Amino acid sequence: MEKPVAFVTSLDRETESRWLTRIGKLLPTENLLPFREMNTLERKAADIAVVANPDPVDVRSLSGLVWIHSLWAGVERLVAVLGPSAPPIVRLVDPELARAMAEAVLAWTHYLQRDMPAYRRQQSKRLWRQQPYRHPSTVTVGVLGLGTLGTVAAQRLVGAGFAVTGWSRSPKFMDSVVCLHGEDGLNELLRIADITVCLLPLTSDTKDLLHAGRLTRMRAGASLINFARGPVVVTEDLVRALDAGQLSHAVLDVFEHEPLSGDSPLWDHPSITVLPHISAPTDMESAARIIAQNIGAYRSTGLLPRTIDVESGY
Ligand code: NAP
Fold this sequence. Notes:
7-stranded parallel beta sheet; 12 strands; alpha/beta; binds NADP nicotinamide-adenine-dinucleotide phosphate
């Protein structure tokens, strides 16, 4: 039997069927099947699974799996539910996603640099007051995470004239970006950044990374943009730092529990902008193309695309 590709998701039927049609069109010789429609033999024969928030029991029942392709770029939940014995996991690495994220980082960095939260507050009080203009070159933006998304965002910020410092796990070199790493590097970035942008994956090392101790190291009046994952920042500590005036504003696109519950105090906080996880939506067209390319390349070469390192969690 030819080896099917299992599609294992918790998406609604309509969205799942749109994904299947898109990827299927690009892989006309593949037998791409939704998990629930697969019989026992097909489940045994499948060597690749394309997944989106799958039930781990379904994935484990595919006994012949060689690798798994995630529809999403962030895979911390998948790694957590499948455990260390799971087949190799390939995450979505999509230039279109990186472009959209860099656009969002630039937009919300300008929002803070141009003092839009202050003008919003002034308007509600009918207050006509001009804030001093800050040229981008006088504003230091710290980018936590210089991976697929962080690198493109940092370059976009450099292009807009900001002074950019980045932080990653391993040492890096980038044109016009001061690259730091390690604990000392993080402390230095927090000390100098007017705006810190978080684009780190959620791992055991990055969970609660921005806690009270680190937030107090940020320069007085600095702002935070979290476009990565909610638990990288300790929310209560962030709220405390905002209430104390240590930090001036936070733009949050990600939360520990999503959707953010209606009774969360974050909605009404005057120094918090709440976004509903929209900074970089997956583009079905380009994501389907990349997934199809990865599957096609594996079929013709037998080589797996780049997989994530389960040990480090990303
Ligand atoms: P990536 O390519 O894996 O890059 C991760 C970066 O973080 C790398 O530079 C890595 O350092 C650094 N890093 C990881 N652990 C670290 C640690 N303990 N200390 C210091 N640096 C560390 O990931 P990506 O594609 O850029 O995506 C980042 C995250 O964005 C995803 O995991 C996801 O959670 C989030 N995301 C959010 C949205 C949204 O709409 N809000 C959309 C897509 C993705 P090295 O370079 O040294 O390895």
